[in-house]
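cron nightly-structures :: item 1 of 1
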Amino acid sequence: MKKLATLLFSMALAGGISAQTCTGNCFNGNGTYTWKNGDKYEGTFKDGKPNGQGTLKKAAGDTYTGSFVDGKLDGNGVYTWKNGSKYEGEFKAGQKNGQGTFTYANGDKYEGQYANNQFSGEGTYTWKSGATYTGTYKNGLRDGQGKMAYNIGGTYDGEWKSGVRNGQGKQTTGNGNEQIGEFQDNKFQNGDFVYKDGTGKITYKDGKPQNVGEANNKKK
């Protein structure tokens, strides 16, 4: 992605573009420019740079079709990697910025907001396994309020920090039991473990159960 972010189309603009590598008008108009390494751009140029709609085909197998501004991916477009992964959405200054959908070659998918090539803001990530997360992201990680639905059953609805459960939330297991309270670094710390049938609960403090015997007696 670093190449994507720094795609400047260095075409020796000070001296113009060599006619040997250009078909059409590669300064102000429509043309096709082919680099020595096999990369090719076909579309609109302004002042010797891709501006407007065009298609970039990389010799390595990646392709991009969409909007360019001053030689950079900027606006709406579709970038497809050689391995089959695809991003469709907004770009700014060569990076994924704004709303977009990333479909991974392995079947995972992210739909939501980006900032500087990372998940940022509201989004939904769906794993090939069927698990989903819908909520807030920061710097590419789950951060803020969000809900995770696990492929084996059960959910977590609450606060996240740096990609893990941190803060207040409710974990519901596949069989219906619930943990309600505070989580720290993905572990239940303070609150109540409530049995699904409502016959008892276990109170946790600093990660330790406080009344296991009492709760078990209530269940009998």
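cron nightly-structures :: done
Residues 129-220 form a domain with the Histone H3 K4-specific methyltransferase SET7/9 N-terminal domain fold (CATH 2.20.110.10).
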